[in-house]
Design a protein that fits this description.
150 residues; Thiol Ester Dehydrase, Chain A; 2 helices
Amino acid sequence: MKEPFPESPQFIHRRRVQFAETDMAGIVHFSQFYRYMEETEHEFFRSRDLTVMHHNDDGSIIGWPRVSASCNFEAPAHYEDILEIRLAVYRKGVKSITYHFEFWRDDTRLARGSMKTVCCHFQRGEKMKSIEIPTVYFDNIKEDYSHDPS
């Protein structure tokens, strides 16, 4: 992930590192960063009066399964740290959204991550299928990322 992160992320989520998220040395286990990305995405949706799991009247569900995720680590996070997780919508396609994340503790960048989700329709007894992003989501989630690598 070599693209520069935008100066003003679209969404910032702050959270305190919990004891259960750390190893015996009090360092956050790497797998938690993937949970933090998902948690931040959920809060981002909520901030726009959206949900990552919309129940339709017919019993079907519109959801956003992940198709890829990555994270590069630069410094450890510790028990009780206050993390600032910055989210930017890198790309909004017809059926998918790609997010970029940065994890900060004060002035120290801890990690950079990326996650791609696809909008899918789930109907009981049928295979899930990708669908075009519904208008209510498409209109409320803006691609706001500088693709200029300079």
